[in-house]
Amino acid sequence: MSQVRTNSIVPVGGLPAGASGGGIIQVVSATKTDTFFTDADTFQDVTGLSVSITPSSSSNKILVFAQLMISTTWFVGHAKILRGSTELLLGDVAGNRQRQAFNFVVDPTMSGSHGEIRQVTRFVLDSPGTTSSTTYKIQVVGRPDNENNGGIHVNRSVADRNNSTFDGRGASSIMVMEVSG
Fold first, then answer.
1. Which end of the chain has fewer CB atoms surrounding its CB within 10 Å, N or C?
2. CA-based torsion, 86, 89, 94, 96: positive or negative
3. Cα–Cα distances in Å, from 154 out to 42, 70, 109, 167, 172?
């Protein structure tokens, strides 16, 4: 079997103005098919939704794709993408407003709404600046605003009923790609 190995492929005419690399060097992903629940009032790691990647150059970037199938017993849910303990893609600080990468609204008290499962997706291009093993993960909060009730379900609806058109099971994933300089 023949193999071609290279660190970079550049078009004959060179890269377009302002471009710097862009080739995919490696891809690492994790898929979660079981369920997860938290009613904590602080962000919690979603078990099974973390990946580790070792960049080949500190000038390379990491493209993170995160997709959650999620439901909540509360009105709104929040999720974050982290590199280690560093939160990525957050809104600016404004008073005591919750900062997050994902925000999703499901009102289980509305007519026709039963805490159905929703899909939320985010992408972020990160510059970790290292060649050490780096972990990316997803966190969710079950009780935003520190209320006395509520919770977040991953990969299932709130009710999780058999024989219901509103309920089902899903799969969530996180994928990271090392992109050249």
1. N
2. negative
3. 16, 4, 19, 13, 8
How many CB atoms are located within 10 Å of the residue 19 CB? 10
Q: Are 79 and 70 in contact (CB under 8 A)?
A: yes
CA distance 77 to 105: 6
Q: Which of the listed CATH numbers 3.30.360.10, 2.60.120.1340, 3.40.50.720, 2.40.10.10 matches domain 32-91+98-158+168-179?
A: 2.60.120.1340
pLDDT, one tens digit per residue, over 37-95 is: 998 888 899 999 999 999 999 999 999 999 999 888 766 778 889 999 998 987 777 78
Helix, strand, coil tally for the chain in percent (to 5): 0, 45, 55
Q: Can you name the residues that pair with 65 across neighbouring β-strands?
A: 123, 175
- Alpha carbons 179 and 150: distance in angstroms, whole number: 39
Joined together, the tokens standing for residue 28 give 């690492």
Signed CA dihedral, 45, 84, 42, 119: sign only: negative
Q: What gap in Å lies between CA 138 and CA 27, rounded to an integer?
A: 17
Q: CA 116 to CA 172: how far, in whole Å?
A: 15
pLDDT digit string, tens, across residues 96-141: 776 666 666 655 555 445 577 888 888 999 999 999 999 999 999 8
